[in-house]
Design goal:
This protein is an alpha/beta fold. It has one domain: NAD(P)-binding Rossmann-like Domain (Rossmann fold, 3-Layer(aba) Sandwich), CATH 3.40.50.720. Helix content is 47%, strand content 15%. The protein contains nine helices and seven strands, in the order H-E-H-E-H-E-H-E-H-E-H-E-H-H-H-E. A seven-stranded parallel β-sheet has the order 3-2-1-4-5-6-7, sandwiched between helices. Helix 2 packs parallel to helix 3. The longest helix has 29 residues. It is globular, with a radius of gyration of 18 Å. The termini are far apart.
Length: 260
């Protein structure tokens, strides 16, 4: 198989990709992967320090990237992000909604405000990203949106009630928006990671629960952020992913195939 053929299938040359939440570990890895596939990447998030560090790392690898600040809890901030990207690059071909938060309180102890915060950051922000950037893509004749779900979109996990509910809703939202956007040339899919060494997992997993995760995952390990890039390239690529929309793709070491 030639490199030219792989480039034809998966290459993102001359495309502009916005990764919201790229200041985190998983979003940052996806931003790096898109840049290495040829996209001009906008690293979007709240932390300028972490965002600019990611941009520097991408440039060191020979990719193109810049940072833009955004607060996904505010619609106006997301709209301003789109305007800023259009001013810099003139278009958006790919959007990844990767911002998110978690909470691990016992069910009887969940604070209503904390529950609302998780749903707002994980579900409402994804909806707003799809709505605001999707309108631009519709006017431009198409694009690709990738929302980040979770293994808990499909399976119940211990003590992540608000998070699991929000991620299940993200998958449902993805399927409904995919159907709405399909006639407009916009594909919308969900990537559902299993357990990765991201900040939110470190906060909720104690030693016993880590052991439980390993026992229930056939590969008996956590995933590495770079292991999400292959599925991402498939789902956002114009050629390889051209007939894929409304899909939920699990990258979880076989976790969803096991019994809970």
């Amino acid at each position: 198989m030639s490199l030219a053929y792989l480039e034809e299938l998966f290459g993102l040359t001359d495309q502009v990709a916005v990764v919201i939440g790229a200041t985190g570990e998983l979003g940052g890895a996806l931003a790096t992967g898109l840049a290495r596939a040829g996209a001009k990447v906008v690293v979007a998030g709240r932390s300028r320090e972490r965002g600019e560090a990611r941009v520097a790392a991408i440039k060191q690898l020979g990719g193109e990237a810049d940072f833009a600040e955004v607060d996904v809890m505010q619609r106006d901030s997301l709209a301003a992000l789109l305007a800023e990207v259009l001013e810099r690059h003139g278009k958006v071909d790919i959007l990844i909604n990767c911002a998110g938060v978690n909470a691990a309180d016992p069910y009887f102890d969940i604070d209503p405000d904390d529950f609302d915060r998780v749903l707002a950051a994980n579900l409402r922000a994804t909806h707003l990203g799809c709505q605001i950037f999707g309108r631009h893509m519709a006017d431009a004749g198409g694009g690709a949106i990738l929302n980040i779900g979770s293994v808990s979109s499909h399976l119940p996990l211990s003590r992540v009630f608000a998070y699991s509910a929000s991620k299940a809703a993200v998958v449902s939202l993805t399927k409904n928006v995919a159907r709405e956007f399909a006639p407009l040339g916009i594909r919308v899919n969900a990537l559902c990671p299993g357990f990765f060494p991201a900040e939110q997992n470190r906060k909720i997993l104690d030693e016993k629960r880590i052991s439980d995760v390993m026992r229930k995952t056939p590969m008996a390990r956590f995933g590495e952020p770079e292991e999400l890039i292959g599925a991402t390239l498939l789902l956002v690529s114009r050629k390889a992913g051209s007939f894929i929309t409304g899909a939920e793709v699990y990258v979880d070491g076989g976790f969803t195939a096991t019994s809970i």
